[in-house]
């Protein structure tokens, strides 16, 4: 079942950086979140997706704000959630791509839902998250 990423769905997180390492099958996403109600503090989170089987990112803008990140372990749910994208990509995917992804039960499906700008998904084996707290007054 599609669920919010726990313990932090990264609601209103501002995407600072995106790095793709195709050789290592790894993606690094750096997200900044203000710690409400005290907006003098913010958190920088490094999300490292490893064992990436497939990714798609769209709608880059000068300001990219996440609505949330959701996760699923279901291939069928991925197909339902991304049916318009898959219909658009019909005929462009290498033969056997979807079958190989469906057959790999170790994969998880991460949906990066946009409030403004950046939107996409990552299908991978694991996600690790490190967070660092910062003070606006001390860091700026």
The percentage helix is 10-25%
Number of domains: 1
Radius of gyration: 16 Å
Globular, elongated, flat, extended or rod-shaped: what is the shape? elongated
- The N- and C-terminal alpha carbons lie at a distance of 41 Å
Q: Provide a count of the helices.
A: 4
Structural notes for this entry:
- By secondary structure, the protein is an alpha+beta fold.
- It has one domain.
- The chain has four helices and nine strands; from the N terminus they run ββββββαααβββα.
- The strands form two sheets. It has a five-stranded antiparallel sheet with strand order 1-6-7-8-5.
Brief overview:
The protein has helices at 75-81, 83-89, 97-103, 136-139, and strands at 3-4, 14-21, 26-34, 41-50, 54-58, 65-72, 108-116, 119-124, 126-135. With 140 residues, the chain is of the alpha+beta class.
Please give the structural blueprint:
Blueprint: E1 3-4, E2 14-21, E3 26-34, E4 41-50, E5 54-58, E6 65-72, H1 75-81, H2 83-89, H3 97-103, E7 108-116, E8 119-124, E9 126-135, H4 136-139
Antiparallel strand pairs: 1-6, 2-3, 3-4, 4-9, 5-8, 6-7, 7-8
